[in-house]
Amino acid sequence: MTITTDAETATTRMTDTGLLILRIATGATMLQAGLIKAFDFGTAVGFMESSGWRFPAFGAFMVTAAETLGGIGLLLGALTPLAACAVIGAMVDAWAVNVSADAFWSQPFNVPFLAAFAAAALLFTGAGAFSVDHRVFGRSKVSAKAAVGLLVIGVAAAVVTWIALNGTNPIHVTSPTG
Length: 178
Fold this sequence. Notes:
Elements: H1 6-39, H2 41-50, H3 56-76, H4 80-99, H5 111-125, H6 132-137, H7 144-166
């Protein structure tokens, strides 16, 4: 029999509350980004087309779906590991858009960068007790191996998507010429 103290219970509640706040902030940010693209899809397609992306409608659909569904998942704490993986993939590519025209270190770390790291934090910590995952599945996080695997999948999906649809390497030590 395990005996928990009031201090341990309070610490757990504080952690779960912190995870809830992080999920709401990250999920709402991603949901807003996805819905902006969904309600003005032509602009998202046009941006990708003007940036030289192949299959711009497909690319815009993928990012819109990842941001919208990932945002909903994080917001509710539903299928959090998969939602975090989708957000990581979308945000690595969004960050790459910001740094692809210059040396990667010359641009400030911005919203996509922070959102990707917030999603990665949720991937490793889990959704917390105030989540659909906890209520429905009885647990709010995955194993360390699964978290690392999903992180690698999210980053790999971003890299493969960028190279396949954009055709370039977004990470430059110096400013690209031309």
